[in-house]
Amino acid sequence: MPKAYVFTRYGGPETEAFVDVDRPSPGPGQLLVAVRAAGVNPVDWKIRSGFRRPGETGDRAFPAVLGSEVSGVVEEIGPGVEGFAVGDEVFGTTLTGGYAEYTLVPVAIAAHKPAELSHAVAATLPVAAATAYDGVRQLGLPRGATLLVTGAGGGVGAAAVQIARADGLRVVGVASAGKKDFVESLGAVHVPSGPDWAERARAAVPDGIDAVYDLVGGEVLTEAAELLVDRARLITAGAPEEVVHGLGGARVTRARNAAVLEAVARLVLDGDLDPHITGTFPLDRAGEALRTVEEGHVRGKTVIEVAR
């Protein structure tokens, strides 16, 4: 039977386990994908801990497979599917979890993988890069404007910095002191995180900050809001909707469609976006891969590769 890495209840790493699962069967509008690579994201361990994405209701059925983004090969297509065929290489957001040998991917959030992209690179795009892309597009800043990105050293943050730079924006990246060289290599002005980081940001850009893309939440979000004259230019993927609304900003509005997947893939092909994969793990070390992200010290992206 196919293997999958799951969590058996809400909680910490102690809830995780490898299990044998039935191979999923695609329903209408779905693809059965043989996974070649799965991206690892902070949202994976947050969901395991009980976090619900905006709009989600009810509890999950356990065991629940971890992971949200994959690249792989179509094994079977569901009723009514057009534009995809068995054997196609695809990438997208999963319906049944990505840390597995097989998963289901809705065609609405799947795209054909360009031959020039590896499965590992493609697997980093549906969540992190697409979230970054959606947020930068949501702000709609003119060329030359200054964008501050908190959590700039992570997967979404690094992608947001690069996409903003490709749009002609000046970017200030807030990240730990240990990520200074990495953030600067992306083309951003680095501001060390920690106490008084907002004062350091003001000093770094005395002519002011036009917008904030927050990926941290909490007190960092509150302090970031105080840097803005126009709070409508405050967006977050790191805090609940009610919190950011209270500060005058908004959550990142996710498009979750194939057009965005194709757009971020094109940015990679054009050399404007590098996912900066800094760790790859086989499926049988999925827990270790997730720990590297959960501990919060990863630069760029971590990927699980599934051998065939």
Set out the fold topology.
Layout: E1 3-7, E2 16-20, E3 30-40, H1 42-48, E4 64-65, E5 69-77, E6 89-93, E7 102-106, E8 110-112, H2 119-123, H3 125-139, E9 146-150, H4 155-166, E10 170-175, H5 180-185, E11 189-192, H6 197-204, E12 211-214, H7 218-225, E13 234-236, H8 241-246, E14 250-251, H9 258-269, E15 277-282, H10 286-294, E16 301-305
Parallel strand pairs: 9-10, 9-12, 10-11, 12-13, 13-14, 15-16
Antiparallel strand pairs: 1-2, 1-4, 3-5, 3-7, 3-16, 5-6, 6-8
Helix pairs in contact: 3-4, 3-9
Please explain how this structure is put together.
The protein has 10 helices and 16 strands. The chain is an alpha/beta fold. Strands 3, 5, 6, 7, 8, 15 and 16 form a 7-stranded mixed beta sheet that branches. The chain has a 6-stranded parallel beta sheet with strand order 11-10-9-12-13-14, with helices on both faces. Strands 2-1-4 form a 3-stranded antiparallel beta sheet, with no helix packed on it. Helix 10 (286-294) links the parallel strand 15 (277-282) and strand 16 (301-305). Helix 3 (125-139) crosses helix 4 (155-166) and helix 3 (125-139) packs across helix 9.
End-to-end gap = 14 Å
What kind of sheet is the major sheet? 7 strands, mixed
Total number of β-strand segments?
16
Shape: globular
User: Strand pairing plus helix content: what structural class?
Assistant: alpha/beta
> Strand percentage, roughly?
25-35%
The portion of residues assigned to helices is 25-40%
* Average pLDDT metric: 95
In DSSP terms (H or I, runs of 4 or more residues), the helix count works out at 10
Order of helices and strands: EEEHEEEEEHHEHEHEHEHEHEHEHE
Give the radius of gyration: 19 Å
Query: Which stretches of 5+ consecutive residues score pLDDT under 50?
Result: none
